[in-house]
Amino acid sequence: MAVQEKRHVSYADAGVDVGEGARAVDAIKDAVRSTARPEVIGGLGGFGSCFSMSGFKDMEDPILVSSTDGVGTKLAIARLLDRHETVGQDLVAMCVDDIVPLGAEPLFFLDYVAVGKLRADHMAKVVSGIAKGCRLSGCALVGGEMAEHPGVMAEGDYDLAGFVVGVVDRPKMIGPERVRAGDVILGLPSSGIHSNGYSLVRKVVIEGRGLQELERPLDELGGESIADAVMRPTTIYAGALVRVLRAGAPIHAMAHITGGGITENLDRALPEGVDAIVYRGVAAGCGWDGAGEPAWSVPPVISYCVREAGLTPDEAYRTFNMGVGMSLIVGADDVDAVRDALGAEGLSSFVMGECVEGDGKGKVMYR
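Above: the chain sequence. Below: its structure as tokens.
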């Protein structure tokens, strides 16, 4: 009776290319080094990442603040368009701008990349965007993981997750408890859709259109193509806002305008008994009539998506950022000083509303 020989199946035969993984690590080393801070101990390649806290001994009560997030279905559009250079900045923005509303300085960042089939050149583009986001926000990219998942994900698929840790001295923490009726709400302009609402964006402006149509300049988008407009990276505010806070700007609270739009996120910055009035039109009572100019500039790509989807005003303000990437709540007497401090850091701002006495839990109303 013949003995059947066992077949040889390598890890590569199973779909995991260890050599390509090593090439991917080599391809991102310079990008990671470009984000270094003095507190980082060691370098890329260890089992764990180390960060010294000795520089924060002067704080009265140092509090670590953390956040994790992803990029969501914007990645599906990145894959369709084969544009991967900016989604890493989106990832960092979603994390670091969620901790600065507590007054925290981002310290270090880690990423997790899951792919169906690892390509070193592809990963280098993604991680270069992550490194750029870390440089813009002032935090160090101290580590991460690239996981190849053959048989679980399609070859062209990938997903991203990010993790940030920051620090704030407890006496300098900001938040809803500082907000009072009479405070003024400032807005910082967004660069576009940022990283939320993309399931709707895909449905109404991407599906059914070929690449040639997506890359054609449109007058409605100010001469941009749909592809360029929807892939514009998310603005990162954290680096500049940390410097503004460090200089002593009297900011009471902040709201990062992400999923849920202005309505849900500004509500998170309000204490019980205080409501927010947001001026959606040029003057109180102007409202939304489809033709009136808003109180601030809405990026053309957002207006385009709102029209294509046929959204009502309330739906639009719960889906997209509507031109506001970050809201700040400040005392009425401090508006000019805070706006000047923001301008010194290159951040333009506009008055978008005010805080008033309310009933029970804070809520956002529009005029």
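The chain has a mean pLDDT of 88.
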